[in-house]
Amino acid sequence: MDLLSNLSRPDGVFATTFTNGSYVFSAISPDGFHTKASKAEHYRTDLNNVAQQWGYVVSYEESWSGSQHRPRWTSAVYLNNIEYGRGIGGSSGSAREKAAKNALVALGVLRA
After folding, report:
1. Is 85 exposed, middle or buried (0-12, 13-18, 19+ CB in 10 A)?
2. Measured between alpha carbons, how far is 95 from 99 in angstroms, rounded to an integer?
3. In a designed cystine with 99, which of 36, 54, 62, 75 is the match (CB 3.0 to 4.6 A)?
4. Which residues cross the membrane (predicted)?
């Protein structure tokens, strides 16, 4: 089963195939938002899984600005040293999640 062939299914469901032959399903609602069974977002995990399948190396570059008690984190995610997404958040983790989501959109795995 090929990842790209599953992205255009009319029911809005796509599948990522892993080397062990199992599938991970995520749903995209009609309004274009990524939904899962749980409310937690796992875009970094999804990106790492896709990158591993496609043979990409994932790396992040982070910086923060503002005061120490209320920092503004900026994170950029790179696949094979090419930037695919940026995210801004109140913590390093939230900025990485947003960057990973933007990278998945840029790769065509998620809808914007």
Report:
1. buried
2. 6
3. 75
4. none
Alpha-carbon separation of residue 55 from 4, 18, 48, 81, 107 (angstroms): 15, 12, 10, 13, 14
Q: What is the pLDDT of residue 40?
A: 58
How far apart, in whole angstroms, are the C-alpha atoms of residue 76 and residue 69?
22
Classify residue 112: in a domain, yes or no: no
- The number of residues in the chain equals 112
Q: What is the pLDDT of residue 51?
A: 95
List C-alpha distances in Å: 95 to 1, 29, 38, 61: 32, 23, 20, 11
Structural domain containing residue 51:
3-107
